[in-house]
Amino acid sequence: MGRLRLSPAAFRRIAFLAGVLLAVIIVTGGAVRLTGSGLGCPDWPSCRPDSLVPHGVSDSHAMVEFVNRTFTGAVSIAVIVCVLGALLRAPRRRDLTWASLGLVVGVIAQAVLGGLTVLFELKPQFVMAHFLLSLALVTDAVFLYRRAGDAGVNPRSIVTPSVRRAGWLLTVWAGVVVFAGTIVTSSGPHGGDRKAKRFGFSVSSVARVHGIAVTLFLLMALASFWLLRRTRAPEPVLSRLGAVFVIACLQTVIGYVQYFNDTPVLLVGFHIAGATALWVAVIWYLLGLTERDPEPSLVGDLDRATAR
């Protein structure tokens, strides 16, 4: 029997699935906090000191937290499959292997951090770190998916240096916006449990800072549009930046509506999902400013699909 090999197209699908699951678990983790189930399972790694699982479906908070932990297991399996896929991919590439191993390290760190979050009774610093590390994992997955579609050689910028600098600035500022948003959330009412400690900041004050950061982000995106047009950047780059701007505008609307309506749980959940989508869009835009030679086998798959 010959050695098992994996095509680049199959590996890219695996990377895509891992990325989707890593993004979804951010939303399910938010659901744990928003339903007040953060301490539904007061122990870790078991749910209770005397039981690995909740005592029954009537223990709703424990069940919500347990389901989220179970979903974390599914994510872990997807990440392991991603590493195996990178090792079996033909041709094997070092950059893809290291990126997939980064997902493993991140998931292990998330498990440890999740345990500390429970053991320290949802201190906001741990909850914030848990969310930000999740976004770092999603970033790695987006990078892995993007690079899995090329041959890994002949990198070339498809925009001017000024556009690349603006892209990096927009990405860094997106990180500032997200970080400010976590401060607002960690100062607000949805701590995951009634006993959970919160930051002592005034919600209106930190929300104002977050709003200013968002406004500056939108202005930077508009300035980037002008720069792309001025330098005649390729249409796909414009389209990716357009997606960033649209998602950011929707996020802004949701943010203001939830703020002036006492942060209803459902809208906060949408805001968490929107923050994840915005970050993915920004990273996808930044990565799209550089191209490499396409993977020949993927080009062949596309040609065959077009011929049909």
Strand order of the largest sheet: 1-2
Number of strands: 2
End-to-end CA span = 33 Å
Order of helices and strands: HHHHEHHHHEH
Shape, per Cα inertia axes: flat
The number of distinct helices, counting runs of at least 4 residues, comes to: 9
Gyration radius, in Å:
21 Å
Helix content: over 70%
Mean pLDDT: 85
Report strand %.
under 5%
Assign the structural class, choosing from mainly alpha, mainly beta, alpha/beta, alpha+beta, or little secondary structure: mainly alpha
Low-confidence stretches: 302-308
Largest sheet: 2 strands, antiparallel
Please outline the helices and strands:
Layout: H1 8-34, H2 60-88, H3 94-119, H4 124-148, E1 156-157, H5 161-187, H6 203-230, H7 235-259, H8 265-287, E2 290-291, H9 296-307
Antiparallel strand pairs: 1-2
Helix pairs in contact: 1-2, 1-4, 1-8, 2-3, 3-4, 4-5, 4-8, 5-6, 5-8, 6-7, 7-8
Keywords:
single chain, 308 residues, mainly alpha, two-stranded antiparallel sheet, 2 strands, flat, disordered C terminus
Protein architecture, described:
- The protein has nine helices and two strands; from the N terminus they run ααααβααααβα.
- The protein is mostly helical.
- The protein is flat, with a radius of gyration of 21 Å.
- It starts with 7 loop residues before the first helix and ends with a helix.
